[in-house]
């Protein structure tokens, strides 16, 4: 097959940004890079796209190979193409991101490449432009959390208002007033109150709720109403 003449070699790579929730904090999954340059430095899960792979197939393969994680829903974030982003060779990287329940996948996680969870605010310095990728993924996640019920996938089937509040506070890196949060989230009428209470984390006990997924799909905009200063928080 005739190839394009006069064209220079450009490598295509994948980087995976995996956020996890453990019930208390949002964390970032990192590995220690196994090749030069920046060998042994902390990095996102990354690798090169093979000639016979699509970007999605490469992302699944790289994540499984470096962390052992299978079946993680990955969403394409953006392509990073600064000519000098990789000092070794001209490389364009397409970043993918995901938010997972750490406990659901903890048995899958392999430590062959020193995969480790870090608190977002305590993450180490990352190689290349990986810090830019993480910050952009955080912004994207805030948009997704406001428009789609993705955060409810990280909660038990039955959850309390305090549990929901903790999750949203971690995503938006802010504090909500307890009474206002409860009032606003209940005013959406998208939660179904249960008879049982959680008595382990509260003396009085907090009622459990379930998300009414049918109502949510019909009126997902309702959840935008309880996020204070959405323009600021979604920046």
Helix/strand layout:
Layout (H helix, E strand, L loop, with lengths): L10 E11 L4 E7 L9 E2 L1 E4 L6 H13 L7 E6 L10 E11 H4 L10 E4 L10 H18 L11 E2 H12 L5 H10 L3 E8 L7 E6 L1 H6 L11 H4 L2
Parallel strand pairs: 1-6
Antiparallel strand pairs: 1-2, 1-4, 2-3, 2-7, 5-6, 8-10, 9-10
In short:
With 235 residues, the protein is of the alpha+beta class. Helices cover 29% and strands 26% of the residues.
3D structure, described in words:
The chain has seven helices and ten strands. With 235 residues, the chain is α+β, with helices and mostly antiparallel strands. It has two domains: 11-147, Nucleoside Triphosphate Pyrophosphohydrolase (Alpha-Beta Complex), CATH 3.90.79; 149-233, Winged helix-like DNA-binding domain superfamily/Winged helix DNA-binding domain (Arc Repressor Mutant, subunit A, Orthogonal Bundle), CATH 1.10.10.10.
Just give the CATH class of the largest domain.
Answer: Alpha Beta
The biggest sheet, with number of strands, parallel, antiparallel or mixed sense and barrel status, is: 7 strands, mixed
H and E order: EEEEHEEHEHEHHEEHH
**CATH fold-level assignment of the largest domain:** Nucleoside Triphosphate Pyrophosphohydrolase
Q: Given the C-alpha coordinates, what overall shape results?
A: elongated
Evaluate the radius of gyration: 20 Å
CATH architecture of the largest domain: Alpha-Beta Complex
Number of strands: 10
Instruction: Provide the low-confidence segments as ranges.
Output: none
Secondary-structure class: alpha+beta
Multimerization state: single chain
CATH superfamily of the largest domain: Nucleoside Triphosphate Pyrophosphohydrolase
